[in-house]
Amino acid sequence: MTLAVEARDLWKTYAGGMHAVKGINFRIEPGELVVLVGGSGCGKTTTLRMVAGLERISDGQVLVGDRVVNDVHPSKRGVSLVFQNFALYPHKSAFKNIAFPLESAGVSRDEIRRRVNEVAEMLELGAHLDKTPDGLSGGQQQRVSLGRAIVRDPDVLLLDEPLSNLDARLRVVMRSELKRIQRRVGSTAIYVTHDQVEAMTMGDRIVVMDAGQIAQMGTPAQVYLTPATLYVAQTIGSPAMNLFTGRASVAADKLSLSGQGWAINISGDGARALIARLPGADMSITAGIRPEDLDLGGVGAALGMGPCVTAEPLGSETLYNIDVSGVTCRVLRRETSVSMPEGQTAPVHLRSGARLHLFGADGLRIGGTVLRDSIGHVGWAPDESFV
Ligand SMILES: Nc1ncnc2c1ncn2[C@@H]1O[C@H](COP(=O)(O)OP(=O)(O)OP(=O)(O)O)[C@@H](O)[C@H]1O
């Protein structure tokens, strides 16, 4: 059976009064894979452990299906956990490791054999069932650990940084494999990671946590295109979004944004939509623009200029770091032949289709606008995609 998981005003206060989780609410739909992401210490693991029943809930409720499980023993919640360090029994074979939860539950030998073989086939471990963990590769060990978690058909699969001990290549392979297996098993899954690429690629939805609270919950596209706070803007996306601090001032139906060494003038529908959301005619703001929305030169709106500090070839793209009056501005260009030498002064422009994100002094999103650049004419349209 596939069940929803809910947190209702969930709190965790550790001894000494440290609030690790501060009244969070979420609902994860049956069969959905939701990723909890955020910086170190933001409360991801604590949240997961409260759902698992490994950490006492200080206040609020956890529901699996329509049952409040606060006082239900971990083994009776229908949840299975996969940790980052695999935690396999070193002297047991892969078969015995996967079979362990079934043996503990008193399942018959024939049934154990049938279930383990079924899971091993799904995880492509059939040829390795007799080996002990030291004879298995990292990816195979992780699959055994996953096999142990899914062999009892859990309603809910909880994964705490399950790929962090694997090398870069294997992580990429296991990302899609894990998602495929979760889909096939049909469990509702909560996946904890600090890796935003994992969050973006694996999550049906993402929960971005910040200091024990939920900064934003949404699809990867929603979180990427309309970050709700500065923290989300900085956490999701690689290379990270450029943030320029300065002031916004309104004159008639035009909006001028400017700070040290940079300025953007916004007019048209995009300006009107933003002005309607601004609390005043002159205020401190932060403007955010993703590196792929910027270019060196070009016909789009100019932002500022400065010397190219470093050029980092990333393969199909090059990341340029331009020093705009002391602020490093990241520009991502998809080019192989034309390159900007380090030290040369470069003008930074917004590309056609660039999204400008505006945040208030409180760090909350005010709104966004999209640059529509048709030959010789720069226009701004409201960015209402997900707002
Ligand atoms: N047993 C504990 N006693 C006291 N404080 C704790 C305990 N466990 C965690 N914390 C604190 O609670 C906060 C949240 O910790 P948690 O492990 O949930 O964060 P996290 O987001 O998973 O971080 P990381 O990515 O570093 O694992 C941190 O400040 C941490 O120091």
Structural description of this entry:
The chain has 387 residues and is of the alpha+beta class. It has two domains: 5-229, Rossmann fold, CATH 3.40.50.300; 239-382, OB fold (Dihydrolipoamide Acetyltransferase, E2P). The protein has nine helices and 22 strands. The protein has a seven-stranded antiparallel beta sheet. A hairpin with a 2-residue loop joins strand 12 (254-259) and strand 13. The longest helix is centred in the middle third of the chain and has 18 residues, at 168-185. It is elongated. It starts with a strand and ends in a 5-residue tail after the last strand. The structure holds adenosine-5'-triphosphate. Adenosine-5'-triphosphate is lined by residues 14, 18, 20, 38, 40-46, 194.
* CATH fold title of the largest domain: Rossmann fold
Number of strands: 22
Give the strand line-up of the largest sheet. 13-12-11-14-20-21-22
CATH architecture of the largest domain: 3-Layer(aba) Sandwich
Quaternary structure classification: single chain
Approximate strand percentage: 35-45%
The biggest sheet, with number of strands, parallel, antiparallel or mixed sense and barrel status, is: 7 strands, antiparallel
How far apart the termini lie comes to 34 Å
Number of domains: 2
- Outline: elongated
Bound molecules: adenosine-5'-triphosphate
Low-confidence stretches: none
Percent helix, as a range, is: 10-25%
State mean pLDDT (0 to 100 scale).
Answer: 91
> Any idea of the CATH class of the largest domain?
Alpha Beta
Radius of gyration over C-alpha positions, nearest whole angstrom: 25 Å
Number of helices: 9
Structural class: alpha+beta
Q: Superfamily at the CATH H level of the largest domain?
A: P-loop containing nucleotide triphosphate hydrolases
